[in-house]
Write a structure and sequence with these properties.
This protein is of the alpha/beta class. About 35% of the residues lie in helices and about 25% in strands. The chain has ten helices and eleven strands. The strands form two sheets. Strands 1, 4, 5, 6, 7, 8, 9, 10 and 11 form a nine-stranded mixed β-sheet that branches. Strand 8 (about 145) and strand 9 form a beta hairpin. Helix 3 (about 75-85) crosses helix 7 (about 190-195). It is globular. It starts with a strand and ends with a helix.
């Protein structure tokens, strides 16, 4: 039977926050919180953490999760996902969930899978969210995206796109709509393996956004809008914010 596999790529090495998957917040590590939320998505038949570090592997196995060791030389989470899928011929679709988003909503994973199922032409799907503050618009760590009328991505950038002429940047949000990319992907098995086989293009190298390489090679990336906010853990300040949010939820 063909299955839908949720994969959580998790590296120990991080430039800004080394070892972040194993950082503990209110009694649970980041990767454990991500795993628990992803496992609640009804569209997934199985969930695996794909890691290059034995410490993460052992920790996931200890809390009862499933993990697989992968190579250390992958330049992206997508390539790490592909290595896992190559060993699982029964997998027909993959959902790639960032390992540093402990507040990922299981219902949004289900929505993304349903979005793919709605059309046979959707072989890559991701999520976008409307930008409502100037900080996200100007922050290069927040990837922006412009889509066509059929919700296919035209371009992703760390810069604010589209550029609004004849208006000061402080007014751009009043003039037009801007969207940020939410790093949740779903792809068919065949397309995932294709994506992982490509050499890095110049536009990917310039912006350090792997999805630009997919556009460069002619793939359509279909975008589903969400209103659910999540946070990525990249800095000690993000860890403090997560703890604050969890305290409010108690």
């Amino acid at each position: 039977m063909k299955t839908t596999l949720g994969i959580i790529p998790a590296r120990f090495g991080s430039t800004r926050l080394p070892g972040k998957p194993l950082i503990k917040v209110k009694g649970k590590t980041i990767i454990e919180r991500v795993y628990e939320r992803v496992a609640r998505a009804s569209a997934l038949d199985r969930v695996v953490v794909a890691t290059d570090d034995v410490r993460i592997y052992n920790h996931v196995k200890k809390f009862g999760g499933e993990a697989m060791m992968t190579r250390q030389d992958h330049r992206s989470g997508t390539m790490r996902c592909a290595e896992v899928v190559e060993q699982m011929p029964e997998v027909a679709r993959v959902v790639n969930v960032q390992g540093d988003e402990p507040l990922i909503h299981p219902g949004e994973i289900d929505r993304l899978c349903g979005f793919m199922d709605a059309s046979a032409t959707r072989t890559i799907a991701t999520m976008i969210k409307r930008i409502d503050n100037i900080d996200d618009l100007t922050d290069p760590s927040v990837a922006k995206v412009v889509c066509d009328r059929d919700h296919r991505a035209l371009y992703f950038s760390r810069s604010a796109i589209p550029h609004v002429r004849n208006h000061h940047r402080d007014r751009w949000l009043d003039v037009t709509e801007f969207y940020k990319h939410i790093g949740l992907y779903a792809y068919t098995r065949e397309v995932l393996l294709q994506l992982a086989s490509y050499d890095q293009s110049r536009i990917e190298e310039a912006e350090l956004l792997e999805q630009l390489n997919w556009l460069y090679h002619g793939h359509a990336i279909h975008a589903l809008e969400t209103e659910v906010e999540s946070i990525g853990i990249d800095t000690p300040e993000d860890v403090s914010l997560l703890e604050h949010i969890l305290n409010l939820a108690d």
